[in-house]
Every structure is written in structure tokens, then in C-alpha cells.
Amino acid sequence: MPRFPEERIEKSKFSDLHTNELSCVTLSMIRFGVCSLKQLYANRLKDAFGRQKSISIELYEELAHSDTVCAEEYQEMVLSRFKFGQVYKRTHRNRFAAFDNAVLSVARKQFGDTVKATLRIHDVAASDGRTSVDLYDELSKLYHDRLWFLATDILPWVYTVAKPGQHLKLVTDDSGHIIELIYPPFVFDLGRRESPFYWINHIIVKRLLKQASALAALFVQRSCEVRVTKIELIHNKCRELIERKSNFRFERYNVFEPINHRFDMVRAMNILNRCYFSQVELRRILQAVFSSLRIGGLFATGSNEAEGSEVEGGIYLRTANGFELLFRSCSGSTVDDLITGFN
Q: Which CB contacts under 8 angstroms, 24+ apart, belong to 30-34?
């Protein structure tokens, strides 16, 4: 069976897991993770069977402070492996460029080039905000200081929690929900189902979870027994806008909730997907969008896959009773029937 000579495990490191029962098993039954930038740069992203390893989300923050030429691309790589419930963070710059051009064209027709009032934009499910920067930059060319832009995501930051001197580190959201376990050389993404083939991983996770739950409880209690580090899952250019521009904000927001703002335009990309949500849940999202838009406002939504692929989407006018299609991209939004049938 294939082995992993470059990632040998020191038995002493796993003494607290009682792993002596695993000593007769080859390392091919184990899947390690990517815990360091060195491993990431070396492209050690798959195991001996070609299956993808989990990447520690900590590396996103390390890359934010790295002078590596390709740091932005590596951040995309880290996000592409990150999952929390129904939340995916996959993204890249200029992902919606052609569709955004259509959005700008429709916005100019609907709002004009010389609006006197502030134009208020909400970019929903913005991941780390790099595509929000794309849209903001283009809108700024038209509306300058008459623009107010809000980017939101359900998970714009996470926290690492650890006890000094312990190997285990967990990643959690604001509420203490455990997202990831980091126990070098392992990274366990709890949002993904581990293959039964890696049964040793299942044993290790099971034994770590009790310790992790105790750490999460201490985090919720704001205990001084644990060391907590906040990881901002926000792109550097987005961070710069937050610092420099008073008309650009990034906030945490759940798409099912009402929002205490009224907007002229809402953009929601790669979120209204029947693979992620039930029909009832999609209607709840549409209700939140409808309630946040003024009459005569625009709703732009669509989805695409790989970089450079076309967006299947639409741009809709918010009327007194629902949404009216103004522009269709490719075959249109995959939930067009729900949007146009909304009332």
C-alpha cells in the first residue's frame, strides 16, 4: 500500500489519543491535511489516491499578510476547500464581469447617470468580498460619492480557539459552532463527510471532539483559559475599502433574515440554488430581498461555475407586488420561476 514518507507521524504526538492500537496499520488509511504555507506552496493538496486534502482556514489569514506574488490565488485555493453547513466560499476576482456590465447598463437606464440621492447597493453572500470590489469600482465610476455599498456574508470571519501547550486547535463561528479541527498533520473539516476508507481519521475525530467541545464551551464563556484569534475572511482589497471609504461596508448577514436598510439594488450571486436550499427556504430568501428593495429597485441574481464561465441569471424590477424580468443572461436564473412567480 502507498505510504507517506514526507509526513511521518511521531507516535508521541498521539499519546493522548491512545493510538497504539493503530500501530499495525499502514499510513495509507490516513488522510492528512494542509497545515502550513510550505505544504500549500509545494502543492501537496492530494493524498496518494488523488483525493483532495482539507486545508486549514488559518492559512487564509497568513496569506493576507504574505508578500507572495500569488497570495491571492492561494487564498482562492484555501476558500475552495472550506465548507460550513450550506456555506461555500469559492470565489475569484472578475468572476461576474460580463454580467456586471449588464447590471450597470440596466442600472443606468433605471436610475440615470445623475441621481441626486444616494444610490444604496446590497451585495448578498459576497464570500470574501473580492467580487464586491469589482462591482463597487464600476459603480463608483458612475455615481462617485452618491454611492453607498454594503457587502454581506453569513461567515465573514471565524475564530481559532486553543489552550496554550495543546496541539488541538478548533475553528468556530461567533456562536461556538465547531467548523474545523486542526491537529497537525491533520485538518478535519466537519462540514464535509470523510470517506469510510480513512477510518483512522474517524477514530481520531471522535476522540478529539470531546476535547474540542470543551474548548468551544470556554470560547462561548469568553474564558481566559483559551487563546482566541479572529480570522477575517475578507479580501485585502475589500479590507482597504473598508478602511479608506466611508461608503463601503462589510457586515455579517443571514439571507433568511430581514435587514434594517432599504436598497435601490440587491445583487445575490451563486446563492439562489436548489442544491443548497429547499423551495420554502428560497421563498424566504426572496421575501427578505423583496422587503429590503424599494419599489423601482433592481434585483440581480445568477450563478456560474468555473472562472470565465457565463452567468445564468437575470435582472429584475421590484414592483409593488413582485418581480418583473428586465434582462436575461444565457438561459436565465435557475430559479426564475420562483422569482417571477413571487407575490
A: 30/4, 30/198, 30/200, 30/201, 31/194, 31/195, 31/198, 31/201, 32/4, 32/7, 32/185, 32/186, 32/187, 33/182, 33/185, 33/186, 33/187, 33/188, 34/59, 34/187
Asked whether residue 142 falls in the same domain as residue 271, the answer is yes
14 with 45, same domain?
yes
Distances (CA, A) of 271 to 40, 119, 286, 300: 28, 23, 11, 12
* Beta carbons of 246 and 140 less than 8 angstroms apart: no
Residue 180: inside a domain, yes or no? yes
Q: Is residue 86 part of a domain?
A: no
Q: Decide: helix, strand or coil at residue 91.
A: coil
Is residue 126 one of the residues assigned to a domain? Answer: yes
For the domain that residue 120 is a member of, what is the CATH number? 3.40.50.150
pLDDT in tens, 270-294: 999 998 899 999 999 999 999 999 9
252 contacts: CB under 8 Å, gap ≥ 6: 152, 153, 154, 155, 156, 157, 174
Q: What is the pTM of this model?
A: 0.87
The whole domain housing 274 covers 97-153+233-340
pLDDT at 6: 42
